[in-house]
Amino acid sequence: MRSTSALLYLSGVTVSFDGFKALNNLSLLIEPGEMRAIIGPNGAGKTTMMDVITGKTRPDTGEVVFDGQADLTKLDEASIATLGIGRKFQKPTVFENHTVRDNLLLALAGMRSWYRLLTAAPTKAENERLEEILSIIRMGPQQHMLGARLSHGQKQWLEIGMLLAQNPKLMLVDEPVAGMTDVETETTAQVLREVNKSHSVVVVEHDMSFVRALGVKVTVLHEGSTLAEGSLDQVSADPRVVEVYLGR
Ligand code: ADP
């Protein structure tokens, strides 16, 4: 296993489904504190890559090193989660019958502490962190609203807040702006930029206005491998990227 200062390091990762290579010798390096956007056409391998990082899919070959030590390919999903990798899926799953505040408190206290939450007041530290997270996700005014009453955008921001409350070393975020309005998309970019001040993030997204608003390094996946890497302007000027996206 290679020694590296990277937070996350994928090398030579290949995943085959029935002989078809969804990932083909993929390499990726995420520095501590970084936020990286992963883009690529449908079928490029973005979801499979996230599944490999979280242990949902085991690669045929290659290594996945996290935090300088753990080779994730040897671990199951539950063990990987305890190392500090948190994932938010595309579809938001907040507790609809609980308020924004209680959703965040449950995430802060850990789901095992449900009983304590219902029977005891939050600690001072929990209350302080709760206020910080409400500010980061811009949902202070909605803190007493039930999950069920939130807009699609607000549910996504709340779920980002719930992930933040668990304080993972790396946050994986799957297509956060799918189905959002332009204004919600811009707000989501601002929320994630704020999250990135304290947390490392890998975000998969199709929406180019969102990726532009994030303003971070971009990795373009194509046919299971990295096609290009750099700023959005750099990769957009790459003729191979233009060909993949526009078929020219
Ligand atoms: P993306 O997220 O970039 O759209 P995916 O990682 O979902 O791409 O898929 C990459 C390729 O692998 C696609 O061609 C897809 O059909 C295939 N694939 C993904 N998961 C499976 C699976 N469980 N069984 C068979 N093929 C799969």
From TrEMBL:
Keyword Nucleotide-binding: yes
SUPFAM superfamilies: P-loop containing nucleoside triphosphate hydrolases (SSF52540)
Keyword terms, alphabetized: ATP-binding, Nucleotide-binding, Transport
Domain ABC transporter residue range list: 8-248
Superkingdom field: Bacteria
Record InterPro entries: ABC_AA/LPS_Transport (IPR051120), ABC_transporter-like_ATP-bd (IPR003439), ABC_transptr_urea_ATP-bd_UrtD (IPR017781), BCA_ABC_TP_C (IPR032823), P-loop_NTPase (IPR027417)
GO molecular function ontology, one term from the record: ATP binding
Protein name as catalogued: Urea ABC transporter ATP-binding protein UrtD
Name of the gene encoding the protein in the UniProt record: urtD
